[in-house]
Fold this sequence. Notes:
- With about 280 residues, the protein is an alpha/beta fold.
- It has helices at about 50-65, 75-90, 105-115, 140-160, 180, 190-210, 235-240, 250-265, and strands spanning about 45, 65-70, 95, 120-125, 170-175, 215-220, 275.
- The protein has a single domain (about 20-275), classed as Rossmann fold.
- It has a seven-stranded parallel beta sheet with strand order 3-2-1-4-5-6-7, sandwiched between helices.
- The two termini are about 30 Å apart.
- The model has no long low-confidence stretch (mean pLDDT about 95).
Amino acid sequence: MNYDMKIKGQTQPDQPGVEELMKPEPIVIRDNYRGSGKLDGKTALITGGDSGIGRAVAVHFAREGANVAIVYLNEDQDAEDTRQMVEDEGKRCLLIRGDVREENFCKEAVEKTVNEFGKLNILVNNAAEQHPKKDIREIDTNKLKDTFATNIFAFFYFTQAALPHLSEGDSIINTTSVTAFQGSPGLLDYSSTKGAITAFTRSLSGNLADKGIRVNAVAPGPIWTPLIPATFDAEKVEKFGKDTPLGRPGQPAEVAPCYVFLASEDASYISGQTLHPNGGQVING
């Protein structure tokens, strides 16, 4: 499949962005991706599941047999489109609209998922925001707090709420970033939260090992998602990902199989680890 598509210079006014406005739209799943029942009978909760990597994970999970609940901020049409994609795979999809920065909402989202499906087996902490600044002195205090609240505090909230429902063989997967390992001079606060997620993943994996609950992370490189045109100017968007060894940005369809692997029994002896779909960047992490 040809993933090397021509990305046009474009911007969007608000984060986390809208997928249907992107040109070209991201590739969600390969036509030749064949599910094999790796997640039959499972229930997954995915934050930021309406678009981008979260949407691709939802559709891949569904093709592998899981029912899915997706948490999203306010992108109703994207969420509805994702639900349709999941239902087209023959599985059920619950949409939960709200702000992951709010602890009570995170608790309610977990309870709604369990009430709808009767259980929870896979938690994917994925929602994120980013606000580039060239100078640390330009970082607004409120934006700094928002970035940490979305990108790492919410991971604690959802994990705390989910744990009573998880049992041996279940899985938590956290979305970190290549920036956690190589840094990002223009995304100081974002890369700091991603570093925190990596440490959170490693620490939590040890904390839950005796319960048989595996905790891993995925650290994507430059992936074509709505957050990109909602973050950068048109010139930077047009060049996005071209500085990787593979010379192009990745697609959500190239990242989601990492989550399938980590959520499935194929990864039964893997915990505390990070997978790196990043276009060939060697980061030794």
